What we know:
By secondary structure, the chain is of the alpha+beta class. Helix content is 62%, strand content 13%. A hairpin with a 5-residue loop joins β3 (267-271) and β4 (277-281). α1 runs antiparallel to α4 (101-127) and α3 runs antiparallel to α4. The chain is elongated, with a radius of gyration of 41 Å.
Amino acid sequence: MTHRTSSFRTVFLLTVTAISFLPVQVAAAEGVSSMQKANNVLDHFVDWLQLRIFPDGAHSDLVHWIACGVLFFAAILLRRVVTHVIFRGLRRLASKTQTTLDDKLFPALERPVATFIMVLGIFAALTALPLAPVVDALISHGAVLSILAVSFWGILRAGGAVLDHLEETAHEKQIGIAHFMPLIKKALAALVIGFGVLMGIKSLGVDVGAVLTGLGIGGLAVAFAAQDTIANLFGSFVVVLDHPFKVGDYVRIGAAEGIVEDIGLRSTRLRSADRTQIVLPNKTAAAETIVNFTRMPQRRVDQKIGLTYNTTAEQMGVVLEDLRKILREDAGVHQDFVVVNFTDTSDSSLDITVTYFTADPDFRKHLVVRERINLKILGAVAARGLSFAFPTRTLHVEDDVARKLAGARLAGPEAPAVGDGRN
């Protein structure tokens, strides 16, 4: 029988891929002798059918069609065995283990493996047919591209399951990189897809080295045109390595401020206080000063309280002790740093400086504590009979001038004006 080298090579590649998920590299390592063995296996199968059905050698084309049908239905049967028996058993086994990795890995691999078996069976069945060389070449190329697509699909799903498991583990152990796992998954997916495209090009007989060389020659122009994209990509790596913030943190990056919603390969998205979305290029995030409010252990409060000038020294001392007691007894105030002092005498008030930290850095809880403290301060000042000052101005007039002004007002409009020279 005529050996159909290109199609049999496809079958060999499919078989090797089922074992290693790296079909092209393994096929190259095995060499021509291994591919010849795969060709011989299929040839022997067709010859065996010929001897069993038509020993006299007649109807050879019909035998090829029968071999095609047998291989196709064998693939369907094998797929059902793998999905309904093997993977079902693996899932039951995974449910009994302590780790959750296998619980994610086996379901992630089930569909790619089932698809791989069908692709293998379809192209093996087509290989058994007596087709024209042009059609046979198209089948061969289609087989290689299909199996590469299924293989890298399986790699992506398996890698995603592993990274999901690592993300859960990092969250449980409160490791900072957990919040950057979505970005890492996107970066690895891009690398795997890019590698898969290169392998697909190589499988079609294209010289990948020449392609890469050509890309290198035009690389300067491409890099110049896409310099912002490249800068954003490197900015995302800086964010991953340095992890100055994570999804859910409230940050200020340059002039932008809000809650981090997403960290992508090109940009970081913030949700501002007025509910608008801010899209910030990662190169900006890597270059600007970043203030992470979420990572504050406590939130600071600075305020001044002004009392009127009729407050005596004794009253001032008593009210200072009242304010210190309020802060010491409030559970929402961090007790490591509490300052209450009479610090200034301004134009219209006696100023008390109050500085403390709220124990919880959450903004809403911080405001609740401030409100509670301020209400208590109002009550303490009122209980001592004191008043808060507001901007006022008092004019002091000399006694003789005051008497003359008073006399002029009492004398009426006919009285001489003060200082007009008359006795």
